[in-house]
Amino acid sequence: MPKKIRLGILGGGGDSLIGILHRVASQINDNYEIVGAVFNPDHNASIEFAKQIDVPTNRIYKDFDTLIEEELKLPEEERIQVCSVQTPNFLHYPMAKKLLDNGFHVICEKPMTMTYEEAKSLQESHTKSGKVFALTHTYTGYPMVRQMREMIKAGALGKIHKVDARYYQGWINPIIHDKEQRSSVWRLDPTKAGISSCMGDIGVHAFNLVEYTTGLDVKSILCDFNYLYEDNQMDVDGTVLIRMGEHVKGVIRASQVATEEENGLAIRIYGQKGGFVWEQEKPNFLYYFEEGKPLQVYKPGHQYNSEFSLEGTKLPPGHPEGIFDSMANIYLGAARAIRGEAQNDGAFPTMRDGVRGMNFIEATVESHKSGNVWVELD
Ligand SMILES: NC(=O)c1ccc[n+]([C@@H]2O[C@H](COP(=O)([O-])OP(=O)(O)OC[C@H]3O[C@@H](n4cnc5c(N)ncnc54)[C@H](O)[C@@H]3O)[C@@H](O)[C@H]2O)c1
């Protein structure tokens, strides 16, 4: 049995939304041990949190630079091997870059950076480093998403002609209508979130899911954003037309003010031979339309699924796979890459996905600002 991978955590403190998802996911397949962290910019809060979750406090550092400095002094066999970056967006680039430049593997939250420029610079650091970089587009880890990807690759839809991805949330609705509240949320602050709120935070997940499942690149986009108040012009809603080929077209719809929607990510893909429908809030059902046949419903764990899909299922059919399992599958892929083991194509979102995501986000802003015009992606 290989030794556990020594994991460091940046952000993801007790006050965070996503920290628990990463911590639990990293433990699900018994691959990682949390050995060091900066959970919070307040050192005492970091230490208190470490005590609460039973992580030894001797490697809870006061800040990120100190973590790197002190870890590099340790013998390699004790040093953190991979750091998971779970901070607000503006810290992803400086943290991930310094980690890669100093020989650490990186698991990083999306959006990968603040700008496309930063994304390309991070890609250079990554190439030079030869280290593993995994981007946590969580939804790619679901067994039914992986099944859809594998079936599309094997030709289940024939030639694809239409893609419709939507990501509707409602949590910003009660915030946006209150002046004080809308000025205190980091996702609505361009210095912390980047140039886009809605497309940067959730539209990019939908974009990634489109490319991940179809295996096609989005070539050009046309975007129309909405914001609700002049004193905060960050997009809270947007509709993006996408072209993936001469006759492959679609739409990405995202909203943070879709009143009372929860985490409504869904994708519909149609081709000459059939179609797929998958919804994140019911992740264990993959609907497959085959031309001229009754609707088929695929579920996790059955032997009719691909080996890649089955690898992400730990219990027999009927034991629901959820968001923790989905993220755990990404951590599993990263663990195998760190250990240099063979793995399936698509086991975790990569640097390329991060670069494409930033290219997409910037293109949506450019398209909207230029009067809703078509913009090419690189
Ligand atoms: N993959 C997904 O589905 C998904 C879901 C939610 C959030 N996210 C991403 O995860 C990231 C964090 O989002 P969140 O909602 O958890 O944010 P959050 O504001 O709830 O938590 C951020 C955490 O980072 C810590 N932090 C802030 N500055 C720090 C610093 N200098 N050093 C160390 N820690 C610091 C905070 O103390 C807090 O614990 C964002 O980039 C977001 O886009 C991804």
UniProtKB/TrEMBL annotation:
Residues 6-136 form the Gfo/Idh/MocA-like oxidoreductase N-terminal domain. Transmembrane segments: none annotated. It holds the Pfam family GFO_IDH_MocA_C3. Gene3D superfamilies: Dihydrodipicolinate Reductase, domain 2, NAD(P)-binding Rossmann-like Domain. Residues 145-276 form the GFO/IDH/MocA-like oxidoreductase domain. This is Gfo/Idh/MocA family oxidoreductase. It comes from Croceivirga thetidis.
